[in-house]
Amino acid sequence: MDASISLDPLIPEAKHRMRRRRIVLAVAVLLVVVAAAVAFGLRPFGGGAAGSATAAANANHDPATPTVPFDSTERHWRATVRSLGGFPADDAALRERLTAMVHESGASVVRLIVWHGISPEAVELVVATRLRPALYLRHRVPPLREQLQRPSYLRVVDRRTSRILEEGGAGNEGFVGVPPALYYCAGVATGMPPPYKPCPVK
Fold it and tell me: What CATH topology corresponds to 65-186?
C-alpha cells in the first residue's frame, strides 16, 4: 500500500488540531494581557514604596512634602548663626513639638533644624501648606511664631512651592518678606504700612 495515500486523511486532522492549539494559546495570552491591564488600572496612583509613603501621609492629613531649595536669605541666615557659634544638633523634644504644631496648623515640614551653640538655640523651619495662603498666614502662623521666639528662620510656601512668608533673624539682623497681596494677612510690622489691599480673610 502506498504510504502517502494512507496518510492523506490524517493531514487535515493534524492541521485542524494545530489551528485549535493556536487559538487556545492566543486566547490565553489575551486573558493574561487583560488581567494585567485591569490590575494596573486598579493600582493606587504612585504605587511602590514612594506611593505607600504618600498614601500614609495623606491618611494622616499630611500633604505630600515638596522639595524647597535654599534661597539666598536662608543661606545668609545660616552663615550668621554659624558666625555666632551655632551648629546643627539633635533636639528630639523640640523637633517633635514643632513638627506636631506644624501638622496641626495644616502644613507639612520641609526642613526643621535646631542650631545649638548659641543661647537660646536657633530654629530653622520651612513648611508647606495646601491651605489658602491668606487663611494660613492670618490664623495658623501666629502660634508658630510664639514657639519661635528665639533666633529663628521661618519660610512658608504654598502647594506650588511659591513663597508666601519668609521672616526671622539672628544676631542684630532681622528680615521679613511677604507678597504684597498678603501683607495684611501676615501680621508683620515694617514701619509705615504700604497702601495694599486688606487681607481677604477675617
Answer: GMP Synthetase; Chain A, domain 3 (3.30.300)
